[in-house]
Design the sequence.
């Protein structure tokens, strides 16, 4: 077999050797907390399942192969993986952080880790000069999200990596792109973190996280904290994540195809103010996306024309797009970031960063693109009067009156 094998092959085979005791083709769920030892001090590498578990090892090997990393540590959630990475630091250390990022990461940094003496500066990392200006003598970590959540801005990973000096670490939350579309380690990052709850798991049925690196000292520190702090996934969760990850390549190709179709549809509407999707030529960093990523992903955000009430109404009216937090599953989701995923960021701070009340975020799933577009169309048409752009040809220009506007789909939509 060629080395290294292609992504799709690694996803299915890395870490997935037949079980040594039974020959089971699929890695078993080793539901055990402990391991019987023949004599004190003698065991086969397994002593206690917080420290090590064969199902988790198989998942860690698989995910390390997807990021072409030498070392991987799986966690019970994306936040636990982020937290373990921040354990590389000590009181008095400073972190430069992407200012558009998942609200839970902001909460961990600003409400928890500051109490342990870490310092954070949030900067618009699309601007490398701003990153450079934020560096202090005690800067130890650059925390990058790219594409960012929820505005899908891009950070030039190689550009930030070029700014770092010895002893500093560049960590990238690669959740939105997935390893199929972006390889931060190859671009100069030291650590990659994923919420495996999202694309890697892919089916919205398990929460998890992973931290991956090629640096032996970083890997050892993260492993030490994984065991010492204990935020590990159980073997059932590890099994589900591993099963989902096997199909990552085919899923990501379809997510992207659908997201592109949805983004193009939204951009053509006059009642949509702005569409954020790195695959659109109108995205301010489309060129960077083409250079840094192998594809543009399945997330699309957009701001509606009209008041916040219109955004809330659209989120309520879609049927295929479930109104829910999270992303990356086979089913499509719609989120109102200001009130949901990013509600832990104070309103003035949120708005300064562009997470406005009219913003909606879509996780475009694997349903038919035609059906997804029909679903969005009916929700947009039904609320169009609030946009202040005049009636459309279909005559759906009056204020959304629950007695008059059917909650069903517009013409051409499927029935479900
Ligand atoms: O939910 P958890 O597995 O702990 O992962 C946290 C996390 C980390 N990084 C990014 C970029 C994320 O988007 C998330 C979780 N995000 C959502 C739940 C959301 O709806 O945006």
Sequence:
């Amino acid at each position: 077999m060629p080395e290294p094998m292609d992504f799709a092959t690694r996803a299915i085979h890395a870490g997935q050797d037949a079980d040594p005791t039974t020959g089971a083709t699929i890695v078993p769920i080793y539901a055990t907390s402990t391991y019987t030892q023949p004599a004190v001090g003698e065991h086969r590498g397994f002593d206690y399942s917080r420290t090590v578990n064969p199902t988790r090892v198989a998942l860690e090997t698989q995910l390390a192969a997807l990021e072409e990393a030498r070392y991987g540590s799986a966690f019970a959630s994306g936040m636990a993986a982020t937290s373990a990475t921040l354990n590389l630091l000590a009181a008095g250390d400073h972190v430069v952080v992407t200012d558009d990022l998942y609200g839970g990461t902001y909460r961990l940094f600003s409400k928890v880790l500051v109490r342990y003496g870490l310092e954070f500066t949030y900067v618009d990392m699309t601007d490398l000069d701003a990153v450079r200006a934020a560096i202090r003598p005690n800067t130890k970590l650059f925390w990058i999200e790219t594409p960012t959540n929820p505005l899908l801005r891009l950070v030039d990973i190689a550009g930030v990596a070029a700014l770092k000096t010895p002893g500093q670490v560049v960590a990238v939350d690669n959740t939105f792109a997935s390893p199929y579309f972006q390889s931060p380690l190859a671009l100069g990052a030291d650590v990659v973190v994923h919420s495996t709850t999202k694309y890697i798991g892919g089916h919205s049925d398990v929460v998890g996280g992973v931290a991956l690196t090629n640096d032996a000292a970083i890997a050892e520190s993260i492993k030490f904290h994984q065991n010492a702090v204990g935020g590990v996934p159980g073997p059932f969760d590890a099994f589900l994540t591993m099963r989902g990850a096997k199909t990552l390549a085919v899923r990501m190709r379809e997510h992207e195809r659908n997201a592109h179709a949805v983004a193009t549809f939204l951009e053509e509407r006059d009642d949509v103010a702005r569409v954020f999707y790195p695959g659109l030529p109108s995205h301010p960093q489309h060129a960077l996306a083409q250079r840094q990523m192998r594809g543009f992903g399945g997330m699309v955000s957009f701001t509606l024309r009209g008041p916040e009430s219109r955004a809330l109404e659209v989120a309520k009216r879609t049927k295929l797009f479930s109104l829910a937090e999270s992303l990356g599953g086979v089913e499509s989701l719609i989120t109102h970031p200001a009130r949901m995923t990013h509600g832990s960021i104070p309103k003035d701070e949120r708005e300064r960063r562009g997470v406005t009340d009219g913003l909606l975020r879509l996780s475009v799933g694997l349903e038919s693109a035609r059906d997804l577009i029909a679903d969005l169309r009916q929700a947009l048409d039904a609320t169009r009067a609030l946009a202040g752009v005049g009636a459309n040809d279909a005559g759906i220009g009056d204020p959304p009156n629950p007695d008059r506007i059917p909650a069903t789909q517009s013409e051409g939509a499927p029935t479900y």
